[in-house]
Design a protein that fits this description.
The structure is a single chain. By secondary structure, the chain is an alpha/beta fold. 54% of the residues lie in helices and 12% in strands. The protein is built from 8 helices and 5 strands; from the N terminus they run βαβαβααββαααα. A 5-stranded mixed sheet has the order 2-1-3-4-5, with helices on both faces. A hairpin with a 4-residue loop joins strand 4 and strand 5. Helix 7 packs across helix 8. It starts with a strand and ends with a helix.
Length: 189
Amino acid sequence: MKIGYARVSTLHQDLTLQLDALKAAGCEIIYEETGSGAKYDRPELANALKALRPGDQLIVWKLDRLSRSIKDLISIINDLDAKQVEFTSITDNIETSTPSGKLMFHIFGALAEFERNLIRERTTAGLKAARARGRLGGRKRKLTAHQIEMAKSLLDKPNNTLTVQEVAKQLNVSRATLFRALSKKDKSV
């Protein structure tokens, strides 16, 4: 069975061109959706994927109608392949039933992996350079070392009448933040 999937990003766009092409390609059922391809919540795509059985064919007008990210596109195609479902993109002239169509997806997969590795490499290099300049990643600490010492001395006084909650309130932090800071200070001593 040939199942079609058509998507536009906004309500102001028209599905007519896609629907005509999918009908001309012989689609018996067509799932229509309005919403960004970058979103992972695409209920009609999910319905189309559930309806597919081994030997069926999913047809789209263009690759970007199925997904905006290569990673997501490859994931969908791999899932289709595992279900023994063929895939066709009409305007991109890609069919996974042909050796050249499968080659195209292997190339896309290799490019996506290359891109992920480059991003990881740049991120690692950037973090290393920042550490070399004395900058640490993450969120700025809520309490300075002086504030932690002050809190510790207030709570350790023999005649202390302040509760942890009151000290935390004076420092404008939660009890949990104060406890965490105090426990880190104890471990570092």
